[in-house]
Amino acid sequence: MRRRLALGLAVLTASGTFTLTMPGSAHAAAESCAGRKVKTLTFSTGSVQIHKRRGTVCVITLPKKPGMRQYMMVSVQARGFHPNKDEGQYSRFAGPRETHAGRRCVKVKGAVGGGSVGTGWILC
Protein backbone atom coordinates (compact mmCIF):
# COMPACT_ATOMS: atom_id res chain seq x y z
CA MET A 1 0.00 0.00 0.00
CA ARG A 2 1.33 3.40 -0.98
CA ARG A 3 1.05 6.28 1.43
CA ARG A 4 0.41 9.71 0.06
CA LEU A 5 1.30 12.88 1.86
CA ALA A 6 -0.52 15.99 0.67
CA LEU A 7 2.01 18.79 0.82
CA GLY A 8 0.09 21.35 -1.17
CA LEU A 9 -2.02 22.08 -4.14
CA ALA A 10 -0.35 23.00 -7.38
CA VAL A 11 -2.20 25.56 -9.42
CA LEU A 12 -1.42 26.37 -13.02
CA THR A 13 -2.46 29.94 -13.66
CA ALA A 14 -3.62 31.43 -16.93
CA SER A 15 -0.20 33.00 -17.41
CA GLY A 16 1.34 29.55 -17.45
CA THR A 17 3.26 30.02 -14.21
CA PHE A 18 3.33 27.27 -11.63
CA THR A 19 2.33 28.25 -8.09
CA LEU A 20 2.44 26.07 -5.00
CA THR A 21 -0.30 26.87 -2.51
CA MET A 22 0.07 25.34 0.90
CA PRO A 23 -3.09 24.26 2.75
CA GLY A 24 -4.05 26.89 5.30
CA SER A 25 -2.35 29.71 3.44
CA ALA A 26 -4.21 32.96 2.90
CA HIS A 27 -4.67 32.11 -0.78
CA ALA A 28 -6.09 28.67 0.02
CA ALA A 29 -8.40 30.28 2.58
CA ALA A 30 -9.73 32.72 0.00
CA GLU A 31 -10.57 29.75 -2.18
CA SER A 32 -12.65 28.17 0.60
CA CYS A 33 -15.64 30.42 -0.15
CA ALA A 34 -17.84 28.86 -2.80
CA GLY A 35 -19.08 30.92 -5.71
CA ARG A 36 -17.67 33.85 -7.57
CA LYS A 37 -15.92 36.79 -5.98
CA VAL A 38 -18.28 39.76 -6.33
CA LYS A 39 -16.45 42.41 -4.31
CA THR A 40 -13.25 43.11 -2.39
CA LEU A 41 -13.30 45.69 0.39
CA THR A 42 -9.81 47.01 1.11
CA PHE A 43 -8.63 48.89 4.17
CA SER A 44 -5.29 49.94 5.66
CA THR A 45 -4.36 46.57 7.21
CA GLY A 46 -6.16 44.05 5.00
CA SER A 47 -9.17 43.22 2.87
CA VAL A 48 -12.50 41.41 2.95
CA GLN A 49 -13.43 39.22 0.01
CA ILE A 50 -17.13 38.71 -0.71
CA HIS A 51 -18.25 35.67 -2.71
CA LYS A 52 -21.75 34.80 -3.87
CA ARG A 53 -23.25 31.51 -5.01
CA ARG A 54 -26.95 31.36 -5.71
CA GLY A 55 -28.47 32.93 -2.56
CA THR A 56 -25.48 32.34 -0.29
CA VAL A 57 -22.96 35.08 0.54
CA CYS A 58 -19.56 34.06 1.94
CA VAL A 59 -16.93 36.43 3.38
CA ILE A 60 -13.31 36.13 4.52
CA THR A 61 -10.86 38.68 5.95
CA LEU A 62 -7.24 38.57 4.80
CA PRO A 63 -4.40 40.62 6.36
CA LYS A 64 -1.92 42.57 4.24
CA LYS A 65 0.89 40.92 6.23
CA PRO A 66 -0.01 37.31 7.08
CA GLY A 67 2.04 35.20 9.46
CA MET A 68 1.88 37.28 12.64
CA ARG A 69 -0.90 36.49 15.15
CA GLN A 70 -3.14 39.51 15.42
CA TYR A 71 -6.78 40.43 15.98
CA MET A 72 -8.96 39.66 12.95
CA MET A 73 -12.71 39.74 12.44
CA VAL A 74 -15.21 39.08 9.67
CA SER A 75 -18.99 39.35 9.77
CA VAL A 76 -21.86 38.95 7.32
CA GLN A 77 -25.49 39.72 8.07
CA ALA A 78 -28.54 39.19 5.87
CA ARG A 79 -31.27 41.78 6.43
CA GLY A 80 -33.64 40.55 9.13
CA PHE A 81 -31.15 38.07 10.61
CA HIS A 82 -28.34 38.11 13.18
CA PRO A 83 -24.73 38.51 11.95
CA ASN A 84 -22.54 35.45 11.41
CA LYS A 85 -19.21 36.54 12.89
CA ASP A 86 -15.71 35.13 13.39
CA GLU A 87 -13.15 36.99 15.48
CA GLY A 88 -9.99 36.20 17.37
CA GLN A 89 -6.21 36.14 17.23
CA TYR A 90 -5.29 34.65 13.85
CA SER A 91 -2.17 34.61 11.68
CA ARG A 92 -3.64 34.03 8.21
CA PHE A 93 -7.36 34.86 7.96
CA ALA A 94 -10.70 35.22 9.73
CA GLY A 95 -13.64 33.22 8.42
CA PRO A 96 -14.96 32.07 6.13
CA ARG A 97 -18.46 32.95 7.29
CA GLU A 98 -21.59 32.67 5.20
CA THR A 99 -25.28 33.40 5.30
CA HIS A 100 -28.15 32.44 3.09
CA ALA A 101 -29.37 35.85 1.95
CA GLY A 102 -31.63 34.82 -0.90
CA ARG A 103 -32.53 38.17 -2.46
CA ARG A 104 -31.98 40.08 0.79
CA CYS A 105 -29.36 42.78 1.20
CA VAL A 106 -26.33 42.02 3.38
CA LYS A 107 -23.97 44.00 5.64
CA VAL A 108 -20.30 43.02 5.74
CA LYS A 109 -17.62 43.99 8.27
CA GLY A 110 -13.97 43.08 8.58
CA ALA A 111 -10.96 44.06 10.68
CA VAL A 112 -7.26 43.32 11.05
CA GLY A 113 -5.40 44.91 13.96
CA GLY A 114 -6.50 48.55 14.18
CA GLY A 115 -7.85 48.78 10.63
CA SER A 116 -11.42 47.95 9.68
CA VAL A 117 -14.09 48.25 7.01
CA GLY A 118 -17.85 48.02 7.00
CA THR A 119 -20.65 48.41 4.48
CA GLY A 120 -24.21 49.51 4.53
CA TRP A 121 -26.76 47.19 2.93
CA ILE A 122 -25.21 45.84 -0.31
CA LEU A 123 -25.88 43.13 -2.93
CA CYS A 124 -29.62 43.89 -2.90
Key words describing this protein structure:
about 120 residues, mainly beta, about 55% strand
Set down the secondary structure blueprint.
Layout: E1 9-12, E2 18-21, H1 26-30, E3 36-43, E4 46-53, E5 56-63, E6 70-78, E7 84-90, E8 94-100, E9 106-112, E10 115-118
Antiparallel strand pairs: 1-2, 3-4, 4-5, 5-8, 6-7, 6-9, 9-10
How would you concisely characterize the structure shown here?
This protein is mainly β and 124 residues long. It contains 1 helix and 10 strands, in the order E-E-H-E-E-E-E-E-E-E-E.
Q: What does this protein structure show overall?
A:
It is a single chain. This protein is mainly beta and 124 residues long. 4% of the residues lie in helices and 53% in strands. The strands form three sheets. Strands 3-4-5-8 form a four-stranded antiparallel sheet.
The helix tally amounts to: 1
What would the principal axes of the Cα set say about the shape? elongated
Classification by helices and strands = mainly beta
β-strand number: 10
- Proportion in helices: under 10%
